[in-house]
Amino acid sequence: MAAYNIQWRSKPDAVGFRTARIKVKRGAKPHYKTVRVRTVREAHKIAAAFAADVDHGKAALAPARLLFSTFLDQWLAGLNVAPLTRINYTSAVNCHIKPALGSIALRSLSPLVIKQAFAGWVGKLKPSSLRQLRNVLASALKSAEKFDLISASPMRKLQGELPVGNPAKAVPVSADKITELLQDDTVYGVAVLLCVAAGLRRGEACGLQWRDIDFDLSTIRIERQLLPLLGPDGNELFGPPKSKYGVRTIRLPAKAMDRLRDHRRKVTEVLLRYGKRLAREMPVVCSDRGYPIDVKLLTAWAGRRGIKLHNLRHWHLSELVNSGRPLAEVAKIAGHSSAVITARIYLHAPEDEGKAAEIIGKAVF
Question: Is the pTM higher than 0.70?
């Protein structure tokens, strides 16, 4: 067993307790633990147990003064994730986790404290937000455990204990409402077209560029999305899809391709008024001068018309699932990592891509 050393840091108080600092050195870095005990024998008993934990790799290396908020900043800085994931994680940490748990030392973070934080969030946040907070905490604390900053993640004991609710069910938009939205002759109507005809997410629809469309094969290639950045300047950025599975080719119905051809002609004419030419790198969903539109404005536009934009994607995928297409095929079109995700959202569910386009074409065009 590793050797330990006990340093007494205070004299006995009114009830006989005094503070001791235990030092155990094994390898290059020493381990410390501060305790309050009444007797020397009790201090040696705790020190021996602490030394045994060090021997078995169960002792945390995190300094006693390392706050959870400081660790979260370090964790976010070294996180290797997609840009949109980083934005969402940073927002969850800064808006909710730090205010509730940031002032606690990393080593002192317990399952009970985390559960109390979730109890405070219930009723204030949606189930989807609660699930995100759970996932962020689990990921951060798993990283702390991996690097021996804590002996074990407190989230391990909270499986099934946190009030995060069940995932929301898909809420497709009615076909009549979609027909109404598709009649909009602005750029927002084109965004609706892409969400309905291809089941795209809003960022994917706004990130589609003219070079991604093959008018001969009636396909579009999803290789990027437009990301809303939460920085002070409010800039936006093209980035990769939500995951590597989001890179995909989708066949569109013939009438959808006709609408895109007509849109290209109109965009070309408008750009010429400003002395500009249509470029392959320009977004399909763009302003009069060929710039990307703000995805938040698109969401607000949809809200004023009584729909949630993401539900257009739900409509597309639900039509495929309910028409009997294999879940694996629908998952590929959706950009899901597996059919399990598709099944969980759409419950029950076309073999070639042409059949999928035919189903969507008959349903709404």
Answer: no
